[in-house]
Write a structure and sequence with these properties.
The structure is a single chain. Helices cover 44% and strands 17% of the residues. The protein contains 10 helices and 9 strands. By secondary structure, it is an alpha/beta fold. It has 3 domains: 2-36, no CATH class; 53-129, no CATH class; 139-265.
Length: 274
């Protein structure tokens, strides 16, 4: 990073944009523009109005009976997932007392154990996955994938995140994270292709797989080559109408980042730092 402000040119080594942002913030009071508000997670078939505290109370004096157990379970699981609560929260005495203070009827609906709360979450996930699969089957376009690998800092766990992009039945562009798969084996193209086929089969879109937006890692090249015969074998000839070289798209932002780092640092960052 080369800074020429304040009449004192200086060069700094920065491996990521975080260091650049920190420098601009502290030294020059230049702040990054805020991003759009994050997308709030929602259920795919919420026909009921969202629960609020008022749902537990009727006016200032009388309590209201909660008769919709399904609605309560769905919002309970949403809260556990989006706020990253431990399943054990439902066994916490203070938490249960707080809900009881609002409504004894609501307290009676709380799961008695962490295992029950976990089962609620898993059941709701499977239900939502089936609903999403139905929506994908009604798409006006092919289902295009964006996916990338992430390895935990400890290096003992790897996950493949898969995002689907499509045009729905109302001609609206949709984007949704549809899978976060653990990758237990090496990060080879064959293993990545196998994971993508599993996702395509699970959602019933193997015959509609479109283009794949990927970074420039070499294993993504082999993944696209390995994916082609798997798709044709599992889902028929229609799944292979896009050639592997055409199916593989490159993320422009990633390419721009690589080019900028090569231009700034070259191949020897240590020499620049010294």
């Amino acid at each position: 990073m080369h800074c020429i402000e304040k009449g004192n040119p200086a060069t700094f080594a920065a491996l990521s944009s975080t260091h650049i942002r920190t420098h601009l913030h502290k030294e020059h009071q230049i702040y990054k523009k805020p991003f759009d508000s994050p997308i709030q997670p929602t259920m795919l078939d919420p026909n009921d109005n969202p629960l609020t505290v008022k749902d537990f109370l009727d006016g200032c004096t009388a309590k209201r009976h909660i008769v919709n157990l399904t609605k309560f379970k769905r919002h309970m699981t949403m809260w556990i997932c989006t706020s990253r609560q431990a399943f054990l929260i439902v066994e916490d005495e203070n938490f249960r007392n707080m809900i009881t203070d609002l409504s004894t009827d609501a307290a009676d609906l709380l799961p008695l154990s962490a295992n029950t709360a976990r089962n609620w979450v898993v059941s709701e996930f499977m239900k939502q996955r089936d609903i999403l699969a139905e929506k994908l089957s009604q798409s006006r376009s092919r289902i295009h994938f964006s996916f990338d690998l992430w390895t935990a800092p400890a290096g003992n766990r790897s996950y493949l995140g898969v995002v689907a992009n499509w045009v729905d039945e109302e001609f609206a562009i949709r984007t949704c994270l549809i899978a976060l798969l653990p990758l237990h084996d090496q990060h080879t193209g064959d293993n990545i292709a196998e994971c993508i086929c599993q996702v395509a089969e699970r959602y019933g879109v193997g015959h509609k797989v479109g283009y794949c937006m990927l970074d420039s890692a070499s294993n993504n090249d082999t993944a696209m080559t390995a994916l082609q015969p798997r798709l044709v074998s599992m889902f028929g000839e229609d799944a292979g109408v896009i050639a592997p070289g055409d199916r593989r798209l490159r993320c422009f932002s990633h390419c721009l980042n690589l080019a900028a780092r090569q231009l700034i640092y070259g191949k020897n960052l240590e020499a620049l730092e010294s």
